[in-house]
Amino acid sequence: MIMRRYTSLRWAALVAAAGVALAGCAGGADSGGSSGAPASSADSGPSGVGSREAGSEADSAAPESAGGADQDLTSEHIAREAGLDITVKDLDKSVERVRSVAEDADGRISSEQTRTDPDRQWSSTRIEVTVPAEELDATLAELEDLGEVTERTSETTDLSSTYTDTDARVRTMKKSISRLEKLLDGAEDLGQVIKIEDELTDREADLESLTRRLKALEKRTTTAPITLDLSTESAPVNDEEETGFVAGLQHGWSAFTSSVAVLVTVLGAVLPFAVVAALVLGPLWWWIRRRRSGVSEP
Length: 298
Known about the structure:
The chain is α+β, with helices and mostly antiparallel strands and 298 residues long. Helices cover 69% and strands 17% of the residues.
């Protein structure tokens, strides 16, 4: 009985010890798992924020770089001009066509000049057409269809640095004028007021000049002039020399009229001198003759 009771107590103690050990292992596993999870989330939290910040910086940097590229493209200020020499069959119709092409391109005719020789064997018209810069190539393509292109010229000038420098000077001048205006508002001494006003007047004059220059540069880069020379074919010249009685009579009459024209021209040139000589030498000759007649009488 005593041995059985001892054995039962021994097994109960072993079971209790095993239970305590199992409970301790389970509690350690749970505490280890729970402590590991916050550590994991804590580690992932800052890294996630950092990745989002990096992503946002990358996203913001991408548009910024793209905007910089666009700014580099738009900051180019190129002035273009072109010229065409075209031989046409009908000058009047060609001029009307030029006006129509300029109007379709939202351009204008800046100047027009027509010349014709006395025999009306040849005539030409020079037209200055101004179109938007983006319409230059299309306008040239349409104008080339007017006739035979005998000469084509094109010129491109980069005004980017000049435009950028002028624009920067305009902005700087505006800021300087703003500072002077603030100084003028706070000035109390009369001499200081006069000095600031004089300086402000000079700065405003400089700003006006720079602004006009900037507008001129903008006009050169946003519009493109085209110098168009239209001409008709000259009439064939007859190189054969005319012969016969009628031709001789025509040549003789032409020579006679030319001689008469030369004679009349010479007479007209000499006549003023002859009149002056008669007025001066006439009285002198009369006085000498009268004196001689008086001396010869007894």
